TrEMBL record:
Alphabetical list of Pfam families matching this protein: p450
Name of the featured protein: Putative Cytochrome p450
Cofactor: heme
Keyword Cell membrane: no
Keywords: Endoplasmic reticulum, Heme, Iron, Membrane, Metal-binding, Microsome, Monooxygenase, Oxidoreductase, Transmembrane, Transmembrane helix
Lineage: Eukaryota, Metazoa, Ecdysozoa, Arthropoda, Hexapoda
One MF term in the entry's GO annotations: oxidoreductase activity, acting on paired donors, with incorporation or reduction of molecular oxygen
Organism: Sipha flava (yellow sugarcane aphid)
Family listed: Belongs to the cytochrome P450 family.
């Protein structure tokens, strides 16, 4: 398979960056002027845009949050910048975010979200238009607070494991980085409540699945901020892209196997459920996947098994 060495990658990156910036400036000069004139902009010139694009591409993932915090501190709560020809506006005020997030008109996600499509396809996060409207209506009840209350026991259980792990790791007033502990606890909670299975990530189990999740997330972050990886071909032949698609195979196979197992269990227990009192059934804990299988049974014309995988992955 074709691989790019450092110098070839550097040359491709420079040519791509300059081409993107110049093309975008010529194609959308009015848009850039309007954005940069209304809010503080850190990339008003072509040179500043190229510098900013390169700097953010070279920033390590762990340093991205401090990078953007410094950007906010220097420029205010609303900041405009361009990355390789793509205009971005960073919002830091909760009131501004509320207006945007509560809008029913502006529901199309930015191009960054499309980089998740090979993984999540067109679940509620990435879909738009009529599909988003119908899917949201179909799934509204699954996020009702009474439904979410069912998961308190699971969340508390995994939280107790987290507390124990943190106490063990910080014995003797030792300073620790809690990021990995929080990540593994979150994964335990998500798999338990969403898929109804216990991966026991905090106990060092399901290693392949945990590694695949972390690897896929790293690759997505790489691709968002390294502009040369926006190109599908370059991404696929890059080390980050190969790792991503290898991890994706593990993740999709895992989800498919769980859905298959849950569907068989759902069919087998259907006759037994009919004999249980309605009040008792309501008290039974159900995973998000269990609820989706119910939705599929009740609305076969509105949801498919593929749709279920999209929502579970999301």
């Amino acid at each position: 398979m074709l691989e790019l060495n450092f110098y070839e990658l550097l040359l491709v990156s420079i040519i791509t960056l300059v081409s993107f910036v110049v093309y975008s400036r010529l194609r959308k000069p009015l848009e850039y002027r309007q954005l940069s004139s209304h809010v503080p902009s850190v990339t008003k010139s072509i040179w500043s845009e190229m510098q900013f694009s390169w700097n953010i591409a070279m920033t390590k993932p762990k340093d991205l949050l401090p990078f953007f915090m410094e950007l906010k501190n220097q420029n205010g709560l609303v900041v405009h910048f361009n990355i390789a020809g793509e205009a971005c506006v960073m919002l830091n005020d909760p009131d501004d975010l509320k207006i945007l997030l509560s809008s029913t008109k502006h529901i199309n996600k930015s191009k960054d979200y499309q980089l998740l499509k090979p993984w999540l396809n067109e679940g509620l996060l990435l879909s738009s238009g009529s599909k988003w409207q119908s899917r949201r209506k179909l799934l509204t009840n699954t996020f009702h607070f009474k439904t979410l209350d069912m998961y308190n026991v699971s969340i508390n259980k995994h939280s107790q494991v987290l507390a124990r792990k943190l106490l063990e790791a910080s014995a003797g007033d030792k300073e620790i980085d809690i990021m990995n502990y929080i990540t593994l606890c979150s994964l335990d909670m998500i798999c338990d409540t969403i898929m109804g299975i216990e991966v026991n990530a905090q106990e060092g189990k399901s290693i392949e699945y945990v590694k695949a999740i972390k690897c896929a997330c790293r690759s997505i972050i790489d691709r968002i901020f390294k502009f040369w990886l926006w190109n599908d071909f370059i991404f696929k032949i890059s080390g980050s892209g190969r790792d991503f698609y290898k991890s994706l195979k593990v993740l999709h196979e895992f989800t498919d196997n769980v859905i298959k197992m849950k569907k068989e269990s759902f069919i087998n227990s259907k006759s037994q459920d009919e004999q249980i009192e309605t009040s008792s059934k309501k008290m039974q804990k159900k995973s998000f996947l269990d609820i989706l299988l119910n939705v599929l049974e009740e609305n076969p014309d509105q949801m498919t098994e593929k749709d279920i995988r999209e929502e579970v992955d999301t």
